Hints:
The chain is of the alpha/beta class. Helices cover 37% and strands 20% of the residues.
Amino acid sequence: MNPSGPLTPQQWEALKRLVEGISPDQILWVSGYLAGFGGARRDLAPSPTLRVEESQPGVTVLYGSQTGNSEKLAQELHSRLVQEGWSVRLEAMGSYKTAQLKRDACLLVIVSTHGEGDPPDNALPFYEFLHSKKAPKLEGLRFSVLALGDTSYEYFCKTGRDFDHRLEELGATRLHARADCDVDYEETAECWIEGILAALARDRAPRIDMPVPAQVQPESAYSKKHPFPATLIENLRLTGRGSTKDVRHIELSLSGSGLRFEPGDSLGVVASNWPERVADLLASLGLDPSSTVPGSSGGEISLEEALLREYEITTLTRPFLEGYAELSGSQELGQLLKEESRGLLRDFQYGREIIDVVRGYPVHGITAGQFIALLRKLPPRLYSIASSYNANPEEVHLTVSVVRYESQGLQRHGVASTFLADRVAEDGQVPVYVDSNPNFRLPPNPEAPIVMVGPGTGVAPFRAFLAEREATGASGRNWLLFGDRNFHSDFLYQVEWLDYRKNGLLNRIDVAFSRDGEEKVYVQHRMLENSRELYGWLEEGAYFYVCGDARRMAPDVHEALVGVVKREGGCSRERAEDYVKELQSSKRYQRDVY
Length: 594
């Protein structure tokens, strides 16, 4: 068949080359297209989505400039690339979203060095990110670096050289060799730009766009049964001096996991028990740590290993107490377990753990097997994810309140919270999996406004919500209500909220600090104080979210919401309750409480 119609001979040859590697379904599209122009099949009109054109891979020109020279060169390169027909994005390092790094195909870096080998001010955040443990693998990226400097300085072009080395280290491939410019940089820079244009031109080839079967995103191999060993990359205390709480910002690397998540999802943390408590328990039981017992997943393991990693050894459950009461023959425990003693049992369980029962009601001659049979498997702990996958695809963030207190003369430690805060070393591993929560989701319409009520660590998913809305360019208004104990020590992520407020992403923030004044003020009080505005947002289609304490906060917020509707809607309580129920049924009122 001879070339005909709008196809040039070069496009014809490119089209034939493309057909060699595609599926039968795709060949049908191509053959129909060719037949339509060759005259043999006039009944087959070319698909409107099928076209041949010069390919224009996306190119990002990224600059870091202290005095403006790098920026000017970047603008020149951008202009030259556009003239050659390339799709180009020009961006300063200071505004570059690091999540974009995994999406870019070609990155052209122009950066200067100042001082003693220092990056420009606007390049420092990206420089630090790229040289941190957060930096992703970049096997699919092609790059080249133009470095500006001054040979009179010891660290000539150090920043550019650092970028060049680090990008290669992360797996990226050089499109063109780095060029180092002295103070008279024009000639060297021009040669580098010409080299870039030539290298890109060699890769330019005709491209065919055609409908192809949708690619199904492969599921990660990691799950609750097979958690991913995430590396700890950040353990930062959020609460300040004088706070009565220890709240940590935890960042974990998910690089290589294939795990994906959405705002509103939780992260399951498969923690191990506190070693000191395991030792105390073994001593109190009088058992040999090396004796073998059944593992929770089958097989034989040592008793010490079982208590450390396999079984729950803290929470006092009714089944444990029932089994232990039978072994011990304790009349006191038996009495507590009667139906009429539920209140007494609740009081007994408060502030006690398994070790308190073992010490208070010893069973002489208990075997390792008997004790293990009383225990349940150590359950993972779930934490609301405090980051957006689209903003940070290689990592996941958590907001963790560390549980430590004294009761019955013993120090108590939250299993997962102290595991994360105290026992995982830097670069240590944390077994994790994603726990999806389809009932706590951002609105499908990005223009819809949202109201987020998140006191304390309940603010975690809303940090993810805002990061997601920023990353996706959602235009809906955002209102955050945050509460905690003290302004100066407990305003979690204060700088981030204020930055969001300044740049316009966060349209409104109202805070309540319960211990800063004579009267305690909570988030529900702020809702009632601003009832007119809140009701107005709801009437405009706002989604209302609540995250945090299920026992007190969530019911109080719910009651305040009903009160807002009753007051501002001028209706009966019954009608206000129906209004709130309608919000829930339409998924405009969502809660993640615990």
